[in-house]
Each structure stands twice: as structure tokens, then as C-alpha cells.
Design brief:
alpha+beta, about 280 residues, flat
């Protein structure tokens, strides 16, 4: 019987165990009314297929933590890209800037049993060569769709994150997040004019669906349809014209036009176009 490996092995290694993280969090936040230790490991990869060949293939991993303490109206943060007992202890020294809390500790959040996606790691389930082969298939299929296709760009990307959130009261929340994405961009050319179309899809699941021919063929169809529509498009009219505005959105337009410039901070610092113009008429 094969027992699945615990994803949290990427968070707790070397000198740090789950019980150590809980102990260190309780010590660091003992004078706070809220806060947590946030641990995260992420592995990511990406492939870019352009000009009929593999242009880039990247893989990286990174891990780290963030420690947050809240006491009354004051919040302290500390973080590091090393997950170890020593690093967490050094981060805990930052919490000393907080005055001891006079309020009882905040209650832990409500738990949920909802499982929205798999714990499996999409990066390790499909070999490197098959991912490159998928990009090649999409490139070839897109070029065969229409003689006007001049350029095809395909990108495939995935990531896998393991997260633990540890509170001083012993509450621990876990999450494992897969994420995959496929992007297809097609450039068409006719009579010296070039236009492009694009379609992307993905989500918090494994690569399986993206490797289905019906999935990536649909991405090709959508990107190609956009490009061909753009190829026949005409320039939009330019210049002054009458615009009728209904209730609601004109307020947003007014805010974007002058609202930001009227903010107190910008006027205090003298960086606004309206600084020092109190009493002047705004055209």
C-alpha cells in the first residue's frame, strides 16, 4: 500500500517540526491579541514555445514565512525566506515593539471541510518531454488552421503551493494549491497587415484537462477567430463627439478626472496639479 507523501514535508524539515512552529508562535505572540505564523513553499515552472521552437523552460522553488502580531491598534510584521527555528526566533524579536495587549485574544476563525481542489502536484505528474510536445502540437495545429497564420506563441505554466497558518492558540490551517495555465496567441497576416488574437485558460487543477485535444483545439479556434476579426476591422472614429451619460458612472469619471488630484496627501506634499489653487476655478 502506497501512502501519499505529506505535502507539508516542504515546510517542516531541518530543525523545524509542526509542534515547534506552534510553540514558537505561542512564545512570539504571547503578548498579542491576534496574529499568526504564515509558512509557504511554492514550486513553479513555465514553458514558452515561439517561432516554432522552445524558447524558454524555467523551474524554480522558494519558501519562507511571515509573522504578524496585533496588539490593539498596532501591528508588527516580520518575514524571511528561510524556514527554520532560528529564523522564526529572530522574527519574533520584532514583536517586542508591540505594547502588551489589554484585550483578550481574538477567537480563531471558523473551520470548513470544503475541498475545492486536489492536493496533487501538477509539476511532477507529467514528464518534461510531454509538456514540450504539447506546445509543439498546438503550434503545428494552429499553423495548419489557416494559411494566413504567420506566427504562433504558446505558453504553459504551473505552480504548486503548500501553506500552513499557525496561531498562538494552537489553531492550524493547511492549504495545498495547484495552479495551471495555457496561453495561445496567434498572429495572422493578409495584404501586409498583421493582427493578433489570444486565448488563455487554466485554474486550480492538474494539467490533465489542458492536455485534452478538445481543450487546446478550442483555445486555437478562439485565438484564431479573434485575429481574423481584427484583420477585417476598421479604425474607430476619432475626434470630438457627443456623449450621453446616465446616472452612476459619471461620478466615477469625475473621480478619476479630478478626484485623485484633490486628495489631501497630494496637496499637502505639493505634488497635485491643484496644489495651492484653493479658490481658483477648475475648467
Amino acid at each position: 500500500m502506497n501512502i501519499p507523501a505529506d505535502p507539508r514535508r516542504f515546510l517542516y524539515r531541518n530543525d523545524l517540526a509542526p509542534e515547534d512552529a506552534q510553540r514558537l508562535t505561542a512564545e512570539a505572540l504571547k503578548g498579542c491579541d491576534d496574529g499568526e505564523l504564515y509558512l509557504q513553499y511554492t514550486g513553479a515552472e513555465s514553458f514558452t514555445f515561439d517561432d516554432g521552437r522552445l524558447k524558454t523552460a524555467d523551474f524554480n522553488t522558494h519558501a519562507g514565512f511571515g509573522l504578524r502580531g496585533v496588539s490593539g491598534e498596532t501591528t508588527a510584521f516580520a518575514h524571511a525566506n528561510e524556514i527554520s527555528e532560528g529564523a522564526i526566533r529572530r522574527a519574533a524579536e520584532t514583536m517586542a515593539v508591540l505594547d502588551p495587549s489589554k484585550a483578550p485574544p481574538a477567537a480563531p476563525p471558523r473551520r470548513t471541510n470544503a475541498s475545492l481542489y486536489t492536493d496533487a502536484d501538477p509539476l511532477s505528474l507529467i514528464p518534461f518531454a510531454e509538456k514540450v510536445s504539447l506546445c509543439q502540437q498546438i503550434d503545428a495545429a494552429a499553423r495548419a488552421r489557416d494559411p494566413r497564420v504567420a506566427q504562433v506563441s504558446v505558453s504553459l505554466a504551473g505552480s504548486w503551493s503548500v501553506i500552513d497558518i499557525v496561531r498562538a492558540d494552537g489553531f492550524v490551517a493547511h492549504d495545498v494549491r495547484p495552479l495551471v495555465r495555457l496561453n495561445v496567441q496567434i498572429v495572422v497576416e493578409q495584404n501586409g497587415r498583421r493582427e493578433s488574437g489570444y486565448h488563455g485558460l487554466g485554474g486550480r487543477y492538474l494539467y490533465d484537462d489542458l492536455f485534452q485535444p478538445e481543450t487546446w483545439n478550442r483555445a486555437i479556434d478562439i485565438a484564431l477567430a479573434q485575429a481574423l476579426v481584427n484583420l477585417d476591422s476598421v479604425a474607430a472614429p476619432a475626434g470630438e463627439m457627443t456623449v450621453v451619460l446616465g446616472p452612476g458612472w459619471p461620478g466615477v469619471l469625475l473621480h478619476e478626472a479630478i478626484g485623485h488630484g484633490l486628495l489631501g496627501d497630494f496637496n499637502r506634499e505639493g505634488t497635485s496639479a491643484f496644489s495651492g489653487r484653493i479658490g481658483d476655478r477648475v475648467p
